[in-house]
From TrEMBL:
Specifically catalyzes the decarboxylation of meso-diaminopimelate (meso-DAP) to L-lysine. Keywords: Amino-acid biosynthesis, Decarboxylase, Lyase, Lysine biosynthesis, Pyridoxal phosphate. It comes from Sporosarcina soli. Its cofactor is pyridoxal 5'-phosphate. The gene is lysA. The keyword Transport does not apply. This is Diaminopimelate decarboxylase.
Amino acid sequence: MHLYGTQTVNGKGHLTIGGVDTVDLAHTYGTPLVVYDIALFRERAQAFKETFNNVGVRAQVAYASKAFSSIAIYEIANQEGLSLDVVSGGELHTAVVAGFPRERIHFHGNNKSFTELQYAFDEKIGCIVIDNFSEIALVKEIAESRQEKMNVLIRVTPGVEASTHDYITTGQEDSKFGFDLKNGQTDKAFRQLHDHPYIKLLGMHCHIGSQIFETDAFRLAAEALMEKMIVWRDDYEFVCEVLNLGGGFGIRYTEEDQPLNPSAYVEEMAEVVLSLTRTHNYPLPEIWIEPGRSLVGDAGTSLYTVGSMKEVPGVRTYIAVDGGMSDNIRPALYGAKYTAVTANRMDESHEKQVTIAGKCCESGDKLIEEAHLVEPAEGDIIAMFCTGAYGYSMASNYNRLPKPAVVFCENGHHQLVVRRETYEDVVRLDIPLQSVEQLEKI
Ligand SMILES: Cc1ncc(COP(=O)(O)O)c(C=O)c1O
Ligand SMILES: N[C@@H](CCCC[NH3+])C(=O)O
């Protein structure tokens, strides 16, 4: 059994996270419940920063908050000196409410609206990562009308195909994101941006995908961008101050996953940049990265309570829990694999193979196809590991299930940071039907 971060088993045979008994958490807050090990988040954040310090590269480590966005996690990210990658007006608003320093907010997205971009200008954020030609026109229009300067990066697709799930590769040529590096689009974008009076072009950005294990893809992407930066220096005397190499560092969901230590990816990238800048006598840019999953993924654990069970003789045993694809769509969407334990009976042998099913009205709502647990009993608390990234943030109200609560645990303390939705929340946007008479009055 593989435990993560501060997880241990206490004298009662219960799983603990951050020094807190998960069975007590389940009773206090109810289930499904997402529990974050905040010490692990902090440790990961510091490891990324130290790696850059050790290799002598100035850097910004931006938390890619699409992985899990909430006011409290933004507060922790700020405490750790991270920057913040937001990808919508909603994430930006969350950052504003959290009081996140605006100069460390970077705004992403392949279809930012005029209103979202206005919001970014209103808040004087650190940088907009420009994705396409329509956005160049919008950003110029806003900057010129306000006569306000905005920092930007050009997002490029470097033509690197990382081996991961098709839905989450983003660096290949056939991608909805960014300007193509090879077919001239990136140069065209550069020409439209680099000498504009209200635009400060900081440099380039790429992100090649998510849940990537091999270092080669990161190395190739860094080389491709550096090559272009050198051309711009030689042709236009333009020097990039910033090279943003995105996120995507893989984590261990199951024993099939063999990620390197997250810092190893950073060392590899930094090595490429250091070596090419030396060879070409290029001023060393700041390197920015945007880890999401590798900061919060294995720091998050979902707790569920076992309800009904069903034996399909000779085939499988289903155990149904009180959540499912509504709080974790990843197994249904990507075929993502996870591991789980019986959190209230950790010292018993986990040898019973079961399928953990959710409670949504879909046959495909299976959280884990082949889980190994203690012989199950109704009321058991199941802890499903590594659900901290793209779990809660992709949750829905499918079947009108209320979204779970989220709790942070650290040094024996626990606190609620997102409350559980109620049935009132579930109907809060609904408007009852009006009669024809009422409609005719409008
Ligand atoms: C632009 C960008 N940056 C960063 C990330 C974070 O990726 P990950 O959570 O895999 O680190 C993503 C998501 O894939 C992204 O699209
Ligand atoms: N949501 C995806 C990752 C997408 C990353 C965002 N660009 C996942 O769960 O793996």
